[in-house]
Design goal:
TIM Barrel, 39% helix, globular, 369 residues, disordered N terminus, 11 helices
């Protein structure tokens, strides 16, 4: 009897122990289950991303006090990120690099009869001052690379442009010495008239082949400047006619159009772009050129009534200013001063432009070399 009771007690105890082992975990103070030690840890709280800093305002272009009050620097690169990257790349031209475009018409030892003539004595004096002031001559292609992309050129550069139809002897007499001594090229603003003799054309072909005379377009008719009354047929005859003649005789396409007589219109400049020209030159000596910086006028000036305002063209690279040879020497020191001021102004604002680039541009344009 007792043994039977002992066995029943042991069985009941086993049942109770089994029920305890399968019971739910004890509840916490709030009635929620207490997690076991083997439960997966919870994820740490997510931190909010830092807000993008506000980019600083970019500085205004360098303002030159030496320019005429009615002339002002015009920019032409709309994308500030590309401008800043090209401006500060160590592979490109340093800020303050300047180009002085000088045009020549007639160099003579005869009595001066027209305002576009310069004596050989004054011509030689000008060329000497260009050299002693530290300038070097460049080609039209070098100028285009500089103006469009800030490609590296000498920090003080000149573009020497001889207008009209000059013979090979003219270039050899007045300009070859500077090629031989300083490796200075010269631009021939060539009139592609069919009235030129075969011999004169061959002279130009020989000069182009020699490598130091860079021919660029100066119209076909030339003697009738383009204005608001000019038909599209006439304008395209001057523009495309020059291109066709250059391809035929020089096996090259001109990249610059030197506006005959300085005449141009916004419509003519648009047509010049349409047929492929990269640069255009006026006869207005408003100032030198820097990267993304071209001095132009937006309205007429009673003191200079023959100077056509270039601002309405809305394309600074198609209406670039040129100094006249007769007074270029008087402006060389001004150009040097503007170059120095522009470089100092750029250094003053470099940190601001770098901060803007880091915030706005770096992710898309990459680091500045």
């Amino acid at each position: 009897m007792r043994r039977h009771l002992f066995v029943r007690t042991l069985g009941l105890l086993a049942v109770l122990l089994s029920a305890c082992a399968s019971a739910a975990p004890a509840a916490g103070p709030t009635g929620t289950p207490v997690p076991s030690l083997t439960a997966a840890p919870t994820d740490p709280p997510t931190q909010a991303a830092s807000p993008t800093p506000e980019p600083p305002a970019l500085p205004v272009p360098y303002q030159a006090s030496l320019l005429n009050p009615l002339d002002s620097p015009h920019t032409y690169i709309p994308e500030p990120c590309q401008y800043i990257k090209d401006k500060w790349s160590s592979a490109n031209s340093a800020p303050g690099t300047v180009v002085m475009v000088i045009m020549f018409h007639i160099i003579t030892n005869d009595a001066l009869a027209n305002p576009d003539q310069i004596s050989e004595f004054n011509f030689r004096r000008l060329m000497k001052k260009i050299y002693t002031d530290g300038f070097q001559a460049i080609t039209t292609a070098q100028l285009a690379g500089f103006l469009y992309h800030n490609a590296k050129i000498p920090e003080r550069s000149v573009l020497l442009v001889v207008d009209d139809r000059k013979t090979r002897q003219y270039f050899e007499r007045f300009f070859q010495q500077y090629w031989d001594d300083y490796h200075w090229p010269v631009v021939n603003a060539w009139i592609s008239t069919p009235l030129s003799t075969a011999d004169l054309w061959q002279q130009q072909v020989d000069l182009e082949a020699a490598g130091w005379v860079d021919h660029q377009a100066h119209g076909v008719v030339h003697d009738i400047p383009i204005d608001s009354t000019s038909s599209d047929e006439y304008i395209l005859g001057e523009l495309q006619g020059s291109i066709d003649a250059f391809k035929l005789h020089f096996d090259k396409t001109p990249i610059a159009f030197i506006w005959p007589g300085g005449g141009f219109t916004p419509h003519a400049a648009a047509l010049a772009r349409q047929v492929g020209y990269q640069l255009g030159f006026t006869i207005n000596p408003r100032g030198p050129l820097m990267y993304n910086w071209v001095p132009l006028a937006d309205s007429g000036d009673p003191v200079r009534p023959t100077w056509i305002p270039e601002g309405p063209v809305n394309d600074p690279l198609m209406v670039l200013p040129r100094y006249w040879d007769t007074d270029a020497a008087l402006h060389l020191d001004e150009v040097v001063q503007m170059s120095g001021e522009a470089a100092a102004y750029a250094d003053q604002n470099k940190a601001t432009e770098m901060e803007y680039y880091d915030i706005v541009c770096a992710s898309q344009y990459g680091p500045i070399p």
